[in-house]
Queue: 4 jobs
Job 1
Amino acid sequence: MEFMKTIDAFVEDFNIPDEYISARLHSLFTKSAKKWYYKMRQDHGKHSWPWWKEQVISKWENDSWRFRMENSFEEAIFNIERDRPMTWFLKKKDRLTALHPDMSDTMQTLAKKKTRINEINVEKVEDTKETTDVSLHESDSEPSEEEEVPEELSIENINVSFEVTEVHTHLPQYSDEYMDLIHVQDAKMQKTKPARGKGYTAGSSCITNIVINNTEAKIHLDSGAFCTCVGKDYLEKVCTNWQDKLMPIEGITFSSASQNMHPLGIFEVEIILPHPAGSIRLKVEIVVMNNCTSQHFILGNDYLNIYGIDINNHKDRYYTMGENKRQKFAFPPERREITFIKQVKNVNKEKFV
């Protein structure tokens, strides 16, 4: 450990007393090491620097410590969403130095070649983490053959697991028919896989509750829908006077997966998403369809984008609104029979935000 070599050099060159060294040890240790130091001092009291040096070597330079350090080194895979590149690289370097304190410059060069760390611009990775519209290109250049590497050196024990493609997987990927398929991995399931032939049973809808004109109704958060729409028959159950407020629509055609849709016009309305911590009101323009048979409103990709509604399928299913990711709107439980229309009494709109 470098700090012990430094202290030994100061003791040899300047004859520093043990009292001065012991007084500074608490500032050299951090986190769990500092807790260990205070516990040892409480149990054993004051001791000389040689005694403390022996305890440090016994604690951190044994086989068990090396095993834990090697595992930490192997498991530290770079994640662009979680890790800051500079911090990650420094931790990797510190762990490698701790495992191989006498590693020469030649071995450091070999380790860099194996991980291709020397081809990565760390500042560019930092910029990519903050703004994902910056491209990160790998170099295809081969290591120079002119560098002489001693044959007796071996780096087989330096098993570095850094993958440059880990950076790319979190950047926007653009469709390209000539794109190569590299590093294909099996996706990790978040829930138990259904029996074979029963995969469809794991599906859930994105239908949730809303309030329109003091009436409770249902709406489908459909990111695959081009626009927000509703069938005239279902709208009639919620807003009986919708035809008086209908705005014209011209010059555009609509279609579903199985048929052409016939728009009647645009109906502007306020939708309230109930939440115990503060409900949310959305002002939307809904395209009224003459031949839509769905028994719910459809909130399409237009207003999902406008209001920044994100649907989360990680374990618990919920959706969030805008930048407030802490306020989660849960989807109601699935039911075979659903009553779509219910009058809501005494709705105080001033409580909604």
Job 2
Amino acid sequence: MKVRLPSRRLFLVISLVVATSLALFDLWMTDNKGGELPQSVVFENKGLGPPVRLRIPSIDVDAGVEYVGLTLSGEMGAPKSPENVAWLNLGPNPGEVGSVVIAGHSGWENAIPAVFDNLDKLDIGDKLYIENNKGTTVVFIVRKIQSYDSGVDTSIVFSSTDEKEHLNLITCAGDWDKIAKKSASRLVVFTDKEGE
């Protein structure tokens, strides 16, 4: 599965700008009359760990999570097996502010069942459960389901600006193009953390 992401350089530049802005804000807000400058900036850590399991009872998904980064071409990696999902480990942990992205296969070769074969059967309001490596489960609720042509920029899947916690699922959909070696479209499920 090929999903276009903002370039690694853009991701690093944005991260650097945010970190620098927070550090400068911290310095500005600190009363340092005659005192020393702070040695470091400490960011809030909610203690949430990386995901290990995704459960979606309404479509019978109970899958292990593989950790992926970007491929050499700058696209999100895909899970190695059809029964697992892949978490983009360059973003937030589930339950932290931002958009967590999880990809899974559908329509696997030789009619082998794949984790997101029934992703299109989700409904608005369905719940997803993500268990992290600390045994905590975070609940997300389906807000929107959208299909994108494979040539369309889907970078919206990887970012959010509302300071809330999101989990976005993505899979291939439509007919398989044997020459281009990709599906005709992408199905994206946008979810929000329960209680947001």
Job 3
Amino acid sequence: MATENTVTTLERMANLLRIRSIESTQAANSGHPTSCASMAEITSTLFFNVMRYDP
């Protein structure tokens, strides 16, 4: 079970992903920012909490 701190961190990361995807699609004058925004929660949870990623 995720702690309250973990949930808050993941929510912040999801919001940051939304902001960055909107900025990127705006800068490129192309893309689908709504698709990116809708996947932000899933992506932040998988990438920053579930997957074992060690660059």
Job 4
Amino acid sequence: MRVCICSLALASLASTQLVSAAPVAGSAKLIGRDDAAAIQYVPGSVDWDKVDWSQVNWSAVSWDAVNWQSVFSSEQPPIYTSEALVSSAQSQPPSVAPAPPSVVPQPSKTASAPVPTSVVPTSVVPVPTPTSVVLPPTPTLVVPAPAPTSVVPPPSTPTPTPTPTPSPKPQPSSSPNPSPEPVYTPESTPEPVTSSAAAPEPEKPASSGSLWGLTYSPYNTDGSCPDVGTVTSQLQKVAGVTSNIRLYSTDCSQLRNALQAISSSNLNLGIHAGLWISDGESRMQSDLDEFIAATKQYDSSLVKGVSVGNEDLSKGMSESTLIGYINQVRARLQSEGLGHIPVYATEQDAHFTKAIAAVCDVVQVNIYSIFDSIFTSVDSSVKSVIQRADNIKNNVAGGKPVRFGETGWSSAGSTGPSPLSLASEIAYVQKFKCAAAAAGYDYFYFEAKDALWKKGQALSEQSFGIFGSDFVQKFDFGLLNLC
């Protein structure tokens, strides 16, 4: 049986600095001077016969602090320090504790130090000076020490993980239409357009056909002509996002290189070619000769159509001149055995006339809302271009199929009130793709890559690509499949 009163006596002696009067053999060590000090005690090493018990301040003993369970335990008591007592003081005192004995016994030599397990109460029960030795009564209630509170570590914070050139070069257009803007109802909630909302993802291939078509100008950043290897590499990426490409000219052997790339790599791409006519009939004839030669060299079924010019009425060409070029090209193709290839013009919707539509196999219109004088939201901008295409279909086309030759959104620069950012470009292409599909329109989205070869032009004109000028994706093309 272990009696803990001895250690309480030592604590009392420590508080009165009387422990030095007893020969404690280095095993009961005074740690501090105040009542919160603790005694390190090694059992069996105190010479209790030499302790002057008359000097013990029994009134300083807190009997409520006695762990009576440990008193009758044969288990070796731990060594406490002042830190342990402070920790113990944070627990709740037992609701019931045995009353102190009226007489305190003199400890035997085999007594062991008690194990404090509860808070020392603030109230102190005075104890009379003992006159005889009486063993403490067996406690009727054992109060266990409070269980330690488990500590759940805070969750760890995850480490937060961008071509010889003819002169002048054909310029695919993304210029504004001079016609009055269509009237439409603004959205109740404008589209958010912050540049930080979306950061470019790592390049991921998208399924073929995410976009119906994509315009492609192959010129290098410095304006030079790319070789067939470069064109092949780029078209392999383009084939991951569309099944149709639109070219504007035959210069830089771009039609021939594209046909070779598609044939050699077995790409699922159809070519909608273009003839440049803005520099006069001589240039138009040169492009037509190259178009026929390249088409005959490769599989002509890869060529799905040819546009005679691009926005030439808006550049000042007369309607009759354009109609004459269209008829001339069609007659030449028929004589070369290529009469199955559709022939058409591509014009801004504001300049497309019924007479032009009458000689075209397809009514192909370029429509942009990015240059509108009023901006309310990307949703409204998409609705605007669909409404304008509907107007051409209902009032100009004469039953011919209507197709977007160009539409798009720039990711940088300024064109007016429309916000230009990567976030708004992504929003526009997503919403336009879904709206065009719902309305039944085919289209060529402008454009495949950023056109840094357009030296001296506005940044906005250079930043329409879904690929950067280095042909790295500007965003995750999986976002194009969300309709």
